[in-house]
Specification:
With 870 residues, the chain is of the alpha+beta class. 49% of the residues lie in helices and 18% in strands. The chain contains 33 helices and 26 strands. The radius of gyration is 36 Å and the shape is elongated. The two termini are 68 Å apart.
């Protein structure tokens, strides 16, 4: 990358063979061929039908398709219709979710300026921004969007807001002189302007140095295209689980098929047995149930100001072990606030100001008079720094409007970026005062006197050293410092820049964007939850560290880096040191991706917050990208998986707690589904080994999996969360969703239900009718799984959890029981589901055998957990 900020204006113009008359038509065409067009390249979007077909790649889906085909071959039309309906419904759901994908690059394209004022063939003209080429001389003024990257040739108080690129909210003063440092971050390249940024003040002349994909905005677009979405821990766990389950199902189906052939069963009958086993084993509704539980979680989070864009991010939030957060507006209030004043040789906290002290009151008056901001009726209008001055006045029941009315402005010299000063003229107590505020280094050079308790006297070297020491102390604590001086005139006059000298130094007012009140508590909760908070900001390192210390992010032994220091580190060095780096300042989009990647390489689940275009690639790269709802650009919102409606760091911590509870609920839902399926598998497998007729028709198992199991599984997903969830450590991302402990529970609970299911089957066989036996086995399995839903709400017994603490669980049980009884007692509906007519005693056995497994589990829970915790 050529460092045009390091080159002189003449060198840059020479490189593009351009004069102040601009390019000729021929030169512009040649430049377009040489350097490219000023447009961001679009990426080709996948067609809907391709996305739909890709939904059938899943191995479990393929097994279900095979099961459907075999059902069709055996003439079992009902099972075939139900199986293919399930497959198509899931495919449609997956396609709809995919089509809600990001439009980040489109948002980047929309940031481009529609028109640009250029010099061509010595004539100033307006052209579409896409026709701007490298070497073009362009003219900028307040309100313009910069059409491409360029080197400033002339600056007339030119100020540009680059917050979308650098993250720094303050407009940047631009100048035309070369910068003598070769390695400086984007935010400090003050003789350059960048595509997509906004001119807020003044005007300027610029030579274009990069267009299209070669601009800083274009590089971000390239990063966006190259950065792939990161699968959430739940996606990884479910994918791994699906693969293992698929292999297990194939092996079991093969064994059952072989056993039936061994018993002399014909091939089609044996295949039907294998199909029944496959249908029993596959949790058909799992994908839909997880989606629904996550969707319910998004509703809860939205009420807490966390808007979820990507469902899987709900659970991913619960796995976070690192949060890389922006400073301005997220950890801080995004509102400059006065902290300390220095007047009459004394440094004073703003809370301790005494308005009866003439020096302190005079400094407040000067702050109100030498500014244009207004704070009234809850509205704050003006520059954030000046708003801080008016708010300081109002803190003591004074009004900047009343002060200005009492001492009206007679003349003024507005602030500009060259002088870094603002001066106003007032009549105060019968005397004419010129009040000037500005940068201390500029004003000290123009100061001859000082005003303190000894009156107005010549300023001494000792005075200057003392003032500079106070300024250093304030600045090293991250405070922005404004100096105030004044001088007297014998009569009213029109101020000129020549008047801005021979000042009387009076005082300093320092300010900072303070932390949000809830940030400290949120950071404390993060640390308690085993999550490391990291600050990444476009601000300067000193300011960032000061804020980070105040809210608890930066502790003894931690380090802070700026973008240049980070660029000087290898990936290996960053990987080794990253655990102790708590603050990054003035970093580039590439740097942010490196930081996220370094954490991920250490096996951490990393969340990243941001609001600017520069944050978008890192938001996409992070496991959980979190954009700002209030200050965020559309690009950052498109790239993120979650949006903070209140731009508040504390909201992330609340979302983490919700995410952890949702994961626990999803795990319990999976336990419910798999333990029930395990009962079906064991029953089918036992019947096969024992040479019995098939205990279930495939349609029985689909009825259970899709109708009576779905509502309890969803209800379990709505279980109220634990209050102490943030006291737990983030879970290991390598921990499978089906760990050893859960697998054992699933096996034991499935075995228990299977025992009573097959007991009912044997009782049914005594009637001499296999359809009655099959109906009893199906009904016991179905009802036992409905009862089992109460077992899977948590590890404690229902006595401890409270039956009505999750009313949805009770509702799901009642609905499931109603559906089962409807097909048992309504013979026309029962015939569709291959159900026989049962006697009262057979129905009694069904209700008894279905209830016993839950009683056994609840007694064990009460003894193991409830009694121990007393």
């Amino acid at each position: 990358m050529k460092k045009y900020f390091f080159k002189s204006k003449e060198e840059v113009l020479k490189e593009f063979s351009v004069t102040e008359k601009g390019l000729t038509k021929e030169q512009a065409e040649l430049s377009k061929n040489l350097y490219g067009v000023n447009e961001l390249q679009e990426h080709e979007k996948e067609k809907a039908w391709v996305i739909f077909l890709s939904q059938f790649k899943d191995f479990l889906v393929i097994i279900l398709i095979i099961a459907g085909i075999i059902s069709m071959m055996t003439g079992n039309i009902e099972s075939t219709v139900v199986i293919f309906s399930v497959i198509i419904m899931n495919a449609i759901l997956g396609t709809v979710q995919h089509l809600k994908a990001e439009s980040s690059l489109e948002s980047l394209r929309n940031m481009a300026s529609p028109k640009a004022k250029v010099m061509r063939d010595g004539v100033k003209m307006e052209i579409p921004s896409k026709d701007v080429v490298a070497g073009d001389i362009i003219f900028l003024e307040a309100g313009d969007i910069v059409p491409a990257d360029g080197r400033v040739l002339e600056s007339f108080s030119l100020m540009v807001n680059e917050s979308s690129l650098t993250g720094e909210s303050e407009s940047v003063d631009k100048f035309s002189e070369a910068i003598n440092e070769e390695n400086i971050p984007l935010g400090d390249q003050k003789n350059m302007v960048f595509s997509g940024s906004l001119v807020t003040y003044g005007r300027g002349v610029v030579v274009i140095t990069a267009v299209g994909m070669k601009t800083e905005l274009g590089k971000i677009a390239s990063l966006m295209k190259e950065t792939k979405d990161k699968a959430t821990p739940l996606q990884v766990s479910l994918d791994n689980f699906g693969k293992k389950l698929s292999i297990s199902i194939l092996v079991l189906c093969g064994i059952v098929f072989a056993i039936n052939i061994y018993h002399g069963v014909n091939i089609l009958e044996s295949l039907l047995f294998a199909v029944a086993l496959a249908v029993a084993a596959i949790p058909e509704a799992l994908s839909s149930i997880v989606t629904i539980v996550l969707a319910i979680g998004t509703q809860k989070m939205s009420k807490e100001n966390a808007i979820i864009k990507k469902l899987k991010a709900v659970e991913g939030l619960g796995s976070i072990s690192v949060i890389c957060s922006d400073k301005t507006g997220t950890l801080t209030q995004n509102k400059m606030t006065s902290k300390k004043i220095y007047v009459n040789n004394t440094l004073i906290n703003t809370e301790d100001i005494n308005i009866n002290d003439k020096y302190q009151r005079m400094l407040l008056d000067f702050g109100a008079l030498c500014s244009d901001a207004v704070s009234e009726g809850g509205k704050e209008i003006g520059d954030p720094t000046e708003v801080a001055l008016t708010n300081l006045v109002r803190k003591f029941d004074l009004s900047e409007l009343e002060i200005r009315k009492e001492y009206p402005r007679l003349s003024e010299i507005p602030f500009d970026s060259d002088r870094k000063l603002m001066s106003t003229l007032h009549k105060i107590d019968g005397k004419i005062y010129m009040v000037t505020k500005g940068a201390l280094d500029i004003l000290l050079k123009r100061t001859k006197y000082i005003y303190d308790e000894n009156g107005i006297r010549p300023v001494t070297d000792e005075d200057i050293v003392k003032i500079e020491n106070v300024n250093y102390e304030l600045s090293s604590n991250g405070l922005r410092v404004l100096a105030f001086t004044f001088k007297n005139f014998s009569a009213e006059k029109e101020l000129t820049k020549e008047d801005e000298n021979d000042y009387i130094f009076f005082g300093l007012i320092s300010m900072i964007d303070p932390p949000r009140e809830e940030s400290k508590e949120a950071v404390k909760n993060c640390l308690k939850a085993g999550i490391k908070p990291v600050m990444i900001t476009g601000d300067h390192k000193v300011t960032a560290v000061a804020i980070a210390k105040e809210i608890g992010i930066f502790k003894d032994g931690d380090t802070a880096l700026n973008g240049v220091e980070l660029s000087g580190m290898t990936d290996e060095e960053l990987h080794e040191k990253i655990e102790n780096i708590s603050v990054y300042a003035r970093v580039s989009p590439e740097d942010k991706i490196r930081i996220v990647s370094a954490w991920q390489s250490r096996g951490k689940i990393c969340a990243m917050t941001g609001d600017g275009v520069n944050d978008a690639p890192a938001l996409k790269k992070a496991d959980i990208g979190i954009a700002m709802g209030i200050t965020g650009t559309e690009v950052s919102k498109d790239a993120a998986s979650m949006i903070l409606a209140d731009d508040n760091f504390a909201t992330i911590v609340k979302a983490v707690a919700t995410g952890r509870n949702i994961y626990a609920n999803i795990k319990n839902s999976i336990r419910f589904l798999l333990s029930g399926n395990m009962a079906g598998i064991l029953s089918v497998f036992y019947a096969s080994v024992a040479g019995l007729a098939m205990p279930f028709a495939p349609v029985h198992l689909l009825f259970i999996n899709l109708l009576t199991d779905s509502l309890p599984a969803i209800a379990i997903g709505m279980e109220p969360g634990k209050d102490n969830v943030l006291e737990e450590k983030p879970r290991d991302i390598n921990e499978p969703i089906l760990d050893k402990n859960l697998s054992v529970k699933i096996m034991l609970e499935g075995f228990l239900i299977a025992v009573f299911t097959m007991a009912g089957y044997y009782i049914g066989l005594q009637s001499g009718n296999e359809k009655v036996a099959s109906t009893m086995a199906f009904a016991i399995l179905c009802l036992a799984r409905l009862f089992h839903g109460f077992n899977c709400r948590g590890k404690n017994s229902i006595i401890k959890l409270g039956l009505l603490s999750n009313i949805y669980s009770v509702f799901a049980f009642l609905v499931g029981t109603f559906l089962l009884n409807m097909i048992l007692f309504n013979h026309s509906i029962g015939n569709l589901f291959e159900v026989a007519v049962l006697s009262k005693s057979q129905l009694g056995y069904i209700y008894l055998f279905a209830f016993i497994p839950t009683v056994v589990v609840q007694i064990c829970r009460f003894v193991k957990y409830d009694l121990r915790n007393k």
